[in-house]
Specification:
mainly alpha; 4 helices
């Protein structure tokens, strides 16, 4: 009787393992497919919003005033009889100052391991 149990337990464990292995991959694929669908729906909503915004831009461009405004701002166009001035050397030039960037301190390896294990590397706070 005991020998039968000793033989049946490994067989039972192998059967359970086979069932788990054969069902894990399809289940993971189903979850990945659901996530892909959710991402696709989100992207579709973003595209609908962008389409609505672009439709408003197209409607605005149908007016002469908007076309003239864009031609003046972007292309520098002027009406006949108008005078255009281009300033090439402004009186108050903008001076860009250099900025020193501090390099991050080196973290000992054991703190790096702890930050990885505790999830601290995701939030960026270190002990």
């Amino acid at each position: 009787m005991i020998q039968r149990v000793q033989t049946a337990v490994p067989i039972f464990l192998l059967v359970v393992l086979a069932i788990v292995v054969t069902n894990v991959f399809p289940f993971r694929q189903m979850i990945a497919n659901d996530r892909t669908i959710d991402l696709g729906i989100d992207r579709l909503e973003e595209l609908h919003e962008e389409n609505a915004r672009l439709t408003l831009q197209v409607e605005a461009l149908a007016t002469e005033g908007e076309v003239e405004r864009l031609a003046r701002e972007d292309l520098g166009y002027v009406q006949q009889g108008e005078i255009t001035y281009v300033i090439t050397n402004p009186a108050n030039p903008v001076v860009v100052e250099s900025v020193e960037v501090a390099l991050p301190e080196e973290v000992p390896w054991y703190k790096s391991v702890w930050n990885f294990l505790s999830g601290q590397d995701f939030v960026g706070t270190q002990f």
